Amino acid sequence: MPVNIDMPKLSDTMTEGTLLKWHKKVGDTIEIGDILAEIETDKATMEMEAFDDGILTDILIQEGQKAPIGSVLAVLNGLGVGANSPAASALASPLPPTPATPPVSVAAATPASPPVASGSDRLKASPLARKLAEELHVDLTKLAGSGPGGRIVAADIATAAAKVNAAVPPSSEATAAAALTASIKNRTFSAPVQPVQPVQPSAAGQAAVPVCGEGDEMVPLSTLRKIIASRLLLSKQTIPHFYLHLEADAAALMDLRKLINDQTALTHGNKYSLNDFILLAVVRATAAVPAINAAFAGDSIIRYKHIGLSVAIALEDGLVTPVIKKAETKSLLTISREVKELASRAKERKLRPDEFDGGTITISNLGAWGIESFDAIINPPQAAIVSIGAAIEKPVVKEGKIVPGLRMNIGLSCDHRVIDGAVGAKFLAELKRLIEHPAIMLL
Question: From residue 39, how far is each of 22, 53, 66, 354 by CA, in Å?
Fold first, then answer.
C-alpha cells in the first residue's frame, strides 16, 4: 500500500522545512532507519530517517523546495514492511469477490503490550498507522509496535488483521481481507505543496511593499531568515526594551590574553580569542547578579538556576545562537573550545536542535567588524542581551593627564518587565570590573 513520507517537525519553532538533498531516488528499496533526505529547519540541517520499508515510488518535493510540517514529501509502496513479512503475504493472497461490508474489529486478536511513551500515556504510532487503525477499528493500546522505539507502524495494523483472518470463519475472513484491501486501494494522498505567495498588506497605516524594478533581484527568504524576521519582530513589538551602555578599559584584558597565549603550557594547545575572555566575564557577572538570569512568564518571573549562554554566530544568511549549557560550571578553556566547536558546526549547518535550547542570556560581539557600540534586540524568551564593541585606541584622561587608552563599549538590552534599571546597571558594573581586572575570573 502507499505510505506517505511527511515533512517532520524537527524543532520546537519549526513551521516549515527546506528539502536540501534527497539521498534516495525513485525506485530505490527503503528500509526502516535509512537516511532519506536532508532537511533544513529554522535552526539547523537534519537528516530524515525512514520509519517504514518499501519502494520509493514518487518524490513530490524537489531539492531546494520548501514545505510546511506534515505535507507529503514522497510516497513509498507496500505496507511499511518488507516483502516477505506476514502482513505483506496476507494482503498478497488472492481474495474471492465479496460484497462490500463494514470492516471487522481486530482488537480481540492483538497482543496486549501497548507502546507507551516514557513518562506519559501517549501512544507512539505513525500517522498512517493511526488512520488505518481508526478505519479498521483496531485498538492501538493492545498492539506492540515493531517500529523504532516500539512505534506502531502500518505493518502492525496489517499483521493484526492477518491474524484475525486466520481465526474467523471463511466468509468473515474474506470480508475482513476485502475491507482491508479496499481501504488501502482507496487511500488518497495530499497534493504537492505549492509555493507560498507573499501577503500584500492592505490596511491603512501598514508598511508599503517595495517594488522590484528592472535590474533588481528578488531573493526568496531562507528558512533561517524567515524565523529571524518573525522572532525579532515579535521581540520589538512585545518586549519593552531599555538600553544601558558603559565603557571599560580593555588594556589589562588584552595583556592577559597575550600572556596566556604566549605560554603554551597554559593554553593546552588552544589559542584564546578576546571573545573567550568576554564570554567568561559575562558568565561570572551573571552569577554575581542572578536577577539578570530570568525571563517573563505572564503572571510570574522565572529565575533560572543555571546559566545558558547563547552565543550569536553570524552565517551567510542570518544569525544563530547555540547555547553553552550550565556555563557557570565551565572554565575558560572549556568555554573557548566549546564555542569554537559550535561555531564550526554552525557554519556547516550541523548543529542539533537541542543545542539551541536552554539559553538564558545572549552575547553578541561585533568588535571583529570594528563596530564601536550598538543596541542588540533581545532574544525571546530571554530578558537580556549583552552587546560588545571593538577595543578602540583613544585618548583618555588618567590622573588629570591625557594618555593613550584602549577602550571597549559594553551595551545591555533589558526586558523592563523583568529587569529594572538598577539591576541592569549593577550587572554592567560587575562586567566592567571583571574586564578591567581579568585575573579575578581565573581564580
Answer: 9, 20, 9, 16
